[in-house]
Amino acid sequence: MKISDIRIAPRFVVALGLLLVAVEPGFGQIYPIEVRPPALSYRVAQTDHFDLIYQSGYEAEAAEVGAVLEHSYLEANALTGTRRRLRVPVVLDAYNDRSNGFVTPFPFRMELEIPPLRGNGLSPRHPSWLNTVARHELVHAAHAESGSGFGLVGLVRLLSPDMARSLNLMVPAGIAEGVAVHLESQGEHRPGRMNHSFFTMEFRAAIAADRPWSLAQMLERPRYSLPGDRFYHGGSYLYRYLHERDEGETFRRAQRLHYVMPLFGYGVSLWYGARRPPWIVGRDFRLAARQAELERQVRLGQITEARVVAGGRGNVHRRPQWLSDTQVVAYATGYYSRPGFYRFDVKTGSRHRISAERITEDAFFSLSADRSHLTFSRYHVDAVIPGRRIAEAHRLDVSTGVADRLTSEGHVFSVAANRHEEAWGVVTSGQYSRLATIDADLTLPAVPLWSRSVVKTMAWSPTGDTLAALVNRDGYQGVQLIYRKGSDFVVEPLILSGEFSVLDLSWFPDGRRLMFSADTEDVPNLFVYDLEANSVSRITNAQYGAFEGSVSPDGSRVAFVEYQHEAWRLAVAGLGELEWRPVPSDKFSAVELFEDPPAAASITPETVDALPSTTYKAFRYLSPRGFLPVFDYDLTPRNAGDIDLGIGIGAAVTGADPLQRWSYVGGAYYQANDFWGQFSVASGRSILRPTVSVFRTPSTRLAQTETGIRRVGWEEQGARMALTLPVTLASNVYRSTLLFSLSGELSRARFFDTGGAALTPFSRRASLTPTLLLGLGLHATGRDLRFSRGVSLGATSTIDAWSDADRRQAMLAEVRVFTRSIPSTGGSISLIGGLLWQNRPSVYNLDFFLPRGLEDTYLSSGSYLKFGADVIQPLLYVDNGLIILPVFLKAIYAYGFAESVKSTSSLSFDFDSVGGGIGFQLRVLHAFSLEMRFGAAYRPDSGEFDAVFR
Fold this sequence. Notes:
By secondary structure, this protein is of the alpha+beta class. The chain contains twelve helices and 48 strands. It is globular.
C-alpha cells in the first residue's frame, strides 16, 4: 500500500481531522493523475466482484487473476470480517520491469504488475507470481471495505467511500501486512513468506537478539533501520500468534472498534480485540517467540564458524565472487555507504569501491572468465514516465569502474557471459521468462524450457560449454543444465526437491562440482553437488542462513553471505575446515517434477477461459467519488495590525478514473465574510500533464499601507492552465531529474482589509509563470536525514504579458549544494545561494526566501541576493514508538544555520540571522509523517533572538 507523507505547511486543508497539504490556495488534488505509456490500450473484463482493467494482449493473465480473486474472495472476507459486497477495480500492467502490487484508496483500486518479482522477497514455492500477489492484495482490498453499522468510518463513507477506506487502512503497516501474508502462506506445497527461509531468518535473528524488536518496531514501518520490511516480519508472526489463539478473532474485533473511532490509533483497538493491553500482548508474544527460537537453536547443534571479512549491523553484502585468491568483489550497501560493487581483501577486511551502482533486487552479477569484467542488470527509469523502469544489461570494467550499457529496451535480468564472450540473460515474458542471448536483437535460443517457467539465475561452467540455470516451475525450484548437442540444445534436470528449494548456484573452478544453497530445514545452507559421483554434501550448519557461496580460484576456500541480526555479513571459510555431511541421494533427485509438477494451484492460464471484454473508457468512472467538508485556515504568524482571515468552512467534490487519466476537484467555502472557491481538472493522457483551473481564493501578503508595513488580504480571481513535464536525466545511485512547468493565467487581484474592504482596485493581467526544478547527482544513504551529495536548483519567473496596471516582472531562484558533514553519521551541510528580482513588491510569498526570524521583512522592488549555509546532524536514530499512543519517532537531530538576504545596491557579506535548534522526525496515526523543529534565530544587527520553527 502506498501511504503519503504529509508535511506541515503555512496553509493547509483539514478533511475530517486528516491533514492534506494544499498545493494551491484552497484545495489539494486528492486524486493525482498517472501518466502511462501513451501507446498502450486497456480493456475491461468483469467478474462477479472485480473489474479487470488490463493491457491489451494480456487476456490470459487477466483471466487467471480474475479466477484467483474470485476463488479467494470468501476467504479474504472471512479473515478481515468484511460483510460488504466488494466491487474492486483491478489494474494489470506489463510496462514496468520492477514488479509490485498494491491497493490504494485514492482512487480505490488494486494494481498488479504482470512481470514476476525478482530476488528472494517471496517464497519460491508460490504457484505463480500473479496467484500470490493477487491473493495478498485481495486481503488489503477486503480490509479497506471492512466494518459496518455505526461508526466514524461509516459516517465518512456516506460522503466519501474512498476516504472511509483510507481510515480503515490507517493502521500500523504490520497489522495490515500480517493478515495478508497469512492468507498468502496458506495452501499446498507451503507457499508464502511464512514458509520462506529468507523471511523467517530475519525474524528469528531479531527475536533472539539482546534487544528484540519492541511491539511498535514490529508493526510500524522503519525509516532508518534494517530490514526495511521488518513490519512484514513482526506483523506476520504476531498475527500467526494471535490466530493460533482465536483463529483471527482478535484482528476482527480490533477492526470493528477501529471502524467506530479510527482517530484513537490502533493501540486502543488492539487492546479491545485482544482483551489485554498492547504491552502485555507484545511481552507475551516476544517471550513465546524467543523461547521457540532458542529451543530451535539448541536443536541445531554445532554452528559453522567462518571468518567474517565484513559485517556490522546495517551493512548488506551480496553474491561475493573471487577476483583472485586474496580478493573478492561483492555488491554492498549500508547505513552510511553508497550502494555498488566493492573489492574486499579477505585477509585485512579492507574494502575499495569499484563503482556506485543500483542493480536489480536479486543483486545478481557474474564475472568474466578472466575476472576483468562483470555483467549485471539495473533499472533505467523512463525519461518522461517515472512509473516505467526497464531492466538493461551492463558490462563493468573492474579496474576502471566504467560500465557500458549492452541493451536498450531489453527487459533483461541475470546476465552471464562464458569464456567465449557469449552472454545470455533472462528476459521477461508475461509473468514468466525465457532465455536470450545478449546481442542487438536479444535472440531467443532454441532452449526447450517448459511452459510456466521462471529462470532466476544462471552460471556458465569454467569451460564455457554448459550453463547451469536456476529454474522455478509452478513453485518447484531447482537446477537444470543446458548444453549444446550438435545444432540443438539439451536441457538436463539436475537438482530438485519436492520439499525444499534451491536458492542460488555457482561452479567450482574444476567444473566438476556445483555449489548451491537450499533451505532443507527452513534455514539456507551451502551444499556441494558432485556431477561425476552424483552425490550431494552439506558443508554449513548456519544459525540463521548461509548462502550465495563462491569458491576461490585455487579451490581451497569459499566466500559466502552469512546472516546475523540486521546484517548480511561477508564470510570466508576453508573448504577443508568445514564438515562435509553426505545428503541422502533422494533428497534432491525429484527432477521428474520439472517435467510434470503436481498442480500447486488449480488455477493456471491453461485452466481458465478467457473473459469477454470491452475497451476501457475513462468517462464511465468519472462520477463523483466523494463530497468532503473543507476547513481552511491561514497559519502564517501575525503581528498587531495584521489581517486574520479566520476559519473557512465549505465542501468539495472529487473524482478520478481507476487509471488516473483524469482527475478533478472543486468546491466552495465561506471565509472572511465572503464565498470562495476553485475547480480544477487534470489529465494524464499527455506527458505534459495539463491542468485547467478556475478560482477565487484569498491569502495574505506583506504590503506597504498608510499605517506601515503589515500583512493584509490578497484576493485572486481567474483561470489558469498549467503544463508540467518531469524528466529523469539519470536514474542510478546518483539521481538527476528535471521538472519544468509552465502556467498561463488570466486573472484579476486586489488587496483587501478586515471585513473585506478593498485597499486597492482590481488589477487585471495575463501572465506566464515558468518554473524549473533541477537536481543533479543527488543521493542520500540509508541513514542520511537528507541529501548528502548533489546540487539542487529551483527557479521561477512571473511575467505579465498584459496588464491594466503596472506589469509584474519577477524571478526567484535558489541553489543548494549538499555535502557530507561528518563521515558515517548521516549528517550533511547545505550551501545556499539565491536570487530575487522584482519590479514591484509582493509578487511572491517570500517566507522561505527570507532568513529565519526575519520572515516579516518587507522587500521593495529591486534585486536581492541570498547566501548562507545550514547543517543537519542526527543525534539519535530511534525508529521506535508507542502503540497505545499512535506516535512513532524516527530520528532526533540538531540543526544550525547562517543566512542573509542583501540588496544588490548595498551588498555586504555579514549574516542577518544565525541560529539552530533541535528537530524531530515522526509519524502519527500510523500514516502521517511530520517534521517538527524548535529553534532560535539570533539577529546580529539588533542583538535579539526569535523563536523559529523551520
